[in-house]
Amino acid sequence: MNKTAAIAVSSLAGIAAIAAIAVATPSRSAVEGLASTAQTATLNLRTYKVDKVHTSVIFGIRHQGVTNFYGRFNEIDGEFSFDPENPGAGSFNFTIATNSVDTGNSDRDRHLRQADFFNSRQFPQITFRSTEVRRSGDKFELVGDLSLHGVTKRITAEMDWIGTGSIRGTPAAGFEARFSIKRSDFGMTTYLASDGGEGGGLGNTVNLIVAVEGLAN
Prior knowledge:
This protein has helices at 3-24, 28-44, 106-113; strands spanning 47-50, 56-63, 67-73, 76-81, 91-97, 101-102, 125-136, 139-148, 151-167, 170-182, 202-216. By secondary structure, the protein is α+β, with helices and mostly antiparallel strands. The longest helix is centred in the first third of the chain and has 22 residues, at 3-24.
């Protein structure tokens, strides 16, 4: 190859390298666009504090194999952040006081707080910490760690995002989540049938509804 040809080849190679770098390097406008999108997503992800007066935690369990019996917890605290357009960035963290269990009968509630059931003195709180939020059709799945009676288990709840609004000038939002657990998984076996099913004094499956209203911090 003569000197002129070598120079030409070298020049072409240099031009190709510059072009490759130009293609691989995003333009300033593209970078600014991505930054703007990320900033918008962050702005939409508002954090809400639980409004204790308008939040409910309801549980149901089979009684003597013949009916479903319901109760509630009266004290729940926590906060959540969520944007239905960006569910993966959501976060949900809640604490329930076990001594706030309420079934409408003071003697039964006292028993539920004792060692046979929630053992409120040793385990004063039920906690939930989300690890993932994902869309599932027109609903969402809320995945996280539930700690109850000294045991932590990963659960998945079906969540309806009710929506957002304003209450007395404060931004507000709400959702309802439903899930089931086996109480035996958490070491609560009093009145449980020998086969671990639903036919004992109290069934094994506990169905829960958590309806939360939150106010922006």
